[in-house]
Amino acid sequence: MFTNTEEIQQCYRKIEEALKGTRRLVVLTHDNPDPDSVSSAVTLSYIVKNRFKVPSVVRYGGIVGRAENRAMIRVLGLRVALLTDKDFKPGVNFAMVDTQPKTGNSSFPKNRKPLIVIDHHPLRKTTRVDFADVRTNYGATATILTEYLMESGLEVPSTLATALSYGISSETQDLGREAGEKDIQAYLALFPLSNKKILAQIEHPRLPRDYFVTLNRALHHSFVYKNAVATTLGEVQNPDFVPFIADFMLRCERISWSLCVGRFKERIVVSIRTTNTKGEAGNFLRRLIGKKGTAGGHGMIAGGQIPCPTMEHEHCTKVEEELIQGFLRKLGYKEAGEMTPLLTTEPIHT
Ligand SMILES: [Mn+2]
Q1: Which of 10, 177, 285, 293 is close enough to 306 for a disulfide, judged by CB 3.0 to 4.6 Å?
Q2: Do 144 and 75 share a domain, yes or no?
Q3: CB 117 within 8 A of CB 126
């Protein structure tokens, strides 16, 4: 069912070796962490503490924005905190989950080397690390950590099972997006151990007013061209709105590519989603953003950011406009200027 026991045990030996001399391990998620990275981080931290007896904490950068993600941390009482300068003490080493150094989506200093990387995004040439376990055929990093947990010989706390099962289901849209046999097996192993009432609370959280404000703005600032939709959100209260809206717009009939941009703290945040399983969204967005910023992702989902230090309105608008035009051109459209509003009063021809 899982990656075979021997393989995982071998990984455990390498981790043990890498951890020698470490007084404390900080497990870092990517910025604005999603359930996949939070559940992976708390699981790795649990294993390091209990199997290797090395003190460990979980840290993130950015903010936890999405209501479901906040609910997950609150309801499960997960101990995660913002990364600060105080975390960089002598004897402290770092692990990164669901991300790698220098990808532009984490707060890990560029001049440091982490000890451990566990991820399902393609291994970067620039990734220098003592132990890397990168499996791009996995739909979620949480699936990799589930395998570690199940082979750890440790008790599987319901909290972790619940977190990981939500990590897998949210990352793969209920096992429908980029999920493989491994993800399904991990989910099935976790489900009996997870707390269903808590899962329901996480999946259906109360929503803040700005959620509705942003949704309204998104609907009025979405434009369609053939099978593509582009949404400009302007300034957002939290950057998680950008991927959320990109996902939401992709649900529109006949749409197979969705681009959403928003402005948050001196950067333009970009998300791309596609229904095309061979869409290579990560590469698509990396090429689209080019040297202007950073981007990453995998087959059907991608995210990136472009720094805009002054955040001058006209400048941002121009950058966003170029992104949208580039998006349509990369999809093979030439006359990209003629997008029509999503909320049109014109009759829709099908
Ligand atoms: Mn992930």
Answers
A1: 293
A2: yes
A3: no
Ligand 1 center to residue 168 CA distance, Å?
Answer: 9
d(CA 39, CA 246): 23
Cα distances from 296 to residues 109, 119, 207, 211, 255, in angstroms, run 18, 12, 28, 26, 22
Query: Domain check: are 61 and 9 in the same one?
Result: yes
Beta strands in 214-310 (DSSP E): 222-225, 228-235, 257-264, 267-274, 294-297, 301-307
Flag whether 257 is in a domain: yes
Query: What's the domain count of the chain?
Result: 2
Does residue 9 surpass a pLDDT of 60?
Answer: yes
What's the gap in Å between 314 CA and the centre of ligand 1?
34
- CA of 171 from ligand 1 middle (Å) equals 6
Residues 227 and 162 in one domain: no
Residue 318: which domain range? 209-341
From ligand 1's centre to the CA of 123, what distance in Å? Answer: 13
pLDDT in tens, 117-157: 999 999 999 999 999 999 999 999 999 999 999 999 999 99
CATH number for the domain spanning 253: value is: 3.10.310.40
pLDDT of 22 > 70? The answer is yes
> What does the pLDDT read at residue 345?
72
Residue 148 inside a domain? The answer is yes
Residue 123: phi and psi, rounded to 5, are -65, 125
Domain boundary, last residue among 160, 180, 203: 203
Q: 244 C-alpha to center of ligand 1: Å?
A: 15
**What would the pLDDT profile of 257-300 be if each residue is shown by its tens digit?**
999 999 999 999 999 999 999 999 999 999 999 999 999 998 99
- Residue 137 and residue 70 share a domain: yes
Same domain, 68 and 100: yes
Q: How close is the Cα of 170 to the center of ligand 1, in Å? A: 10
pTM for the whole structure: 0.92
Cα–ligand 1 centroid distance for 180 (angstroms)? 14
Whole-number average pLDDT of the chain: 95
Task: Spell out where 98-250 has E strands.
Answer: 116-119, 131-134, 222-225, 228-235
Q: How far is the CA of 143 from the centre of ligand 1 (A)?
A: 10
